[in-house]
Amino acid sequence: MPDDSARGEQTIAVERCLELLRDGDTAVRGELLNLTQERLMRLTTKMKRDFRGVGRWEQTEDVFQNASMRLYQAMSSTKIEDARHFFRLAALQIRRELIDLCRHYRGPQGQGAHHVTQAGNQDDGDGRAMAFDPGDAAANPAELQAWSDFHECVDRLPDKEREVFELLWYHELKQDEAAELLGTSTRTIKRLWRSARLMLHEKLSDSTRQSIAL
Hints:
mainly alpha; two-stranded antiparallel sheet; 10 helices; 68% helix; globular
């Protein structure tokens, strides 16, 4: 994991690129992706764990590449204010890519319903083992539905609640760290975190709430 100085240098570099982007230099979009590739790959890996049924068919690198293309396109239509805004936009594109994959694979008509789960490490016919994460190979379609519903509800939270929820849930920041990042009090973070969880609790079904354990 990069140290604080490395993260600080990256933020400065991202801010510099965003300034060029706001000035109309569209070529800098590729540089932004290159600068943040490692960080965004870690975020993709973490978020993909929630979508265990997707991992059976989709490699993390493929999810990351597709989400990166979404982010690249979003940068052409979104005025990105700062590095914090950029990484929030990136997390949104990763989440939406995973939700779309869930829709593709889940349910009786989904592609996932027409595949036989392969256990353990099996030979692919070319002498190489095909490995699946144990959690992915045993993925429950109902659980995949629950996680998809959950992340879709996160997308629909009011902006303030969504930002705090993203920082605490996806980025796993502590409440005082989120408060410092957002320039507000820990008390405000606690209030928004509680508000976001209550909103999600009201929107989600009983079975989904049990799966997510909010």
